[in-house]
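May I ask you for just one protein sequence along with its backbone structure tokens in two labelled lines?

_____
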Amino acid sequence: MKKVAFLGVMALSVLGLSTILLFNACEQDPCKDVVCLNGGTCEDGDCNCPIGYEGDDCGVRTADKYVGTWSAAEVCDSGIYNYVATISASSTEVTSILISNFGGFGSSVVVKGTIVDPNSFTIPSQAFGNVAFSGNGTLSADGLTINITYIASDGTTSDNCQATYTKQ
């Protein structure tokens, strides 16, 4: 009788172990059929995109959201200014945008912005003649407004500015 009970326990143990192995062996890899573009990596079935790309498969270039013609209304220490600026995506750097007529200083002033996440960028210090610009900007959730804060400095005086760009 002990032998039969022992065999029964062994049989149940083998059946339980087999069931556990069967269910664990059927666990699907959530990234098996997920393709992430532009250097994105899959984690738990979703793509994690590198800076400069976004979307379900990292197929959308972030800079493209900024591209267009923008009406600017700017308040600086030196006064109030209105002008039109054009933003384009850099053809050489995926995380860069180029803002033409920045600050209303003319089309020869093209400031480079560096995208830090899908809705914000920095303006690293860059000089045009004797004036240097630096700052940052944020794109609204609907993609129709950019708020930019920057400083223009000629080395002796600085002009602090707040600009609101509205997409035309």
About this structure: The radius of gyration is 28 Å. Residues 66-167 form a domain with the Lipocalin fold (CATH 2.40.128.420). DSSP finds one helix and twelve strands in the chain. Confidence is low (pLDDT under 50) at residues 6-22.
